[in-house]
Amino acid sequence: MSKVKYYYDSENLAYRKIKTRKRKKFGVAILFLLASALFGFLSFVVLLNTPYFETPKDRLQAREIENLRLNYAILNKKINQINSVIEAIEDRDNNLYRVYFNQSAIPDEERKAGFSGVNRYAKLEGYDNSQLVITTTKRIDVLSRELAIQSKSLDAILKLAEAKNAFLSAIPAIQPVRNENLKQMASGFGYRTDPFTKVRKMHEGMDFTAKKGSPIYATGDGVVAKADNTASGYGNHIVIRHGFGYETLYAHLSKYKARAGQRVKRGDIIGYVGSTGRSEGPHLHYEVHKDGKVVNPLNFYYGNISAVEYVAIAKLANQENQSLD
Length: 325
Known about the structure:
The chain is α+β, with helices and mostly antiparallel strands. 39% of the residues lie in helices and 22% in strands. Strands 3, 6, 8, 9, 10, 12, 14 and 15 form an 8-stranded antiparallel sheet that branches. α2 (56-100) runs parallel beside α4 (130-170).
């Protein structure tokens, strides 16, 4: 029961009851309810931001964050494994491939350089796990750069290897007549007695005696530059341009099996032994030219003969006898 309040009426010299209006009572009640609601809301907000009160959404987010951290940890382990593999490839690249092709090594500073200038990771800052995300992203960026540099390096090595392979294939590295078809190696490179004038003069090739019609082989990859009998003394002859400064000549052929402009490979049959032109009997006169100068063909027979066979041929080639052309 509410208390009855009075006030003193000085004019009438008496105490009178204070009558509370219903409207005022209603306003006070509304104000109390609003104050209670505001207090309750503030209390709820405070509780939400304390570690002692978690909503289902908070628990879900916490699990997602923990899962994110776990995934980043697994990702970093995988990056470590990839780094180990790349480092092994880089080591072989610097110390094997590039050494073999006489190329300078790529320094680590270039391979593992980061990205200077504008902050590439500003959009990742300001979060609870920013450092974890930024560190991992930087590692991935450096890894991507290493892979790009290594890819370019291997592309360059591949081009060098292809050029090296083309160079090795172009060198005239086999005998133009096989040993089983040879009667003998009649005359070598150097000063020999001319069979027609009996004068000692420079013999710029090697003479291989063989039965007429024995096959003649291209000694290296190249393109047939000539296949005719226009050069004096050579009779039917073929000239192959191998590239890299190499050129070979095959003379006194009985017939051709290659034509001018044709691309041939080492070991292809290009013609047959004969005795056309200035010749004393069926044989092949074979010359090797390097950068426009004639060189001793004996120095190039490493592709299809053994060491014992080479010694035997060298012994015959170095005898100062009479040439056949």
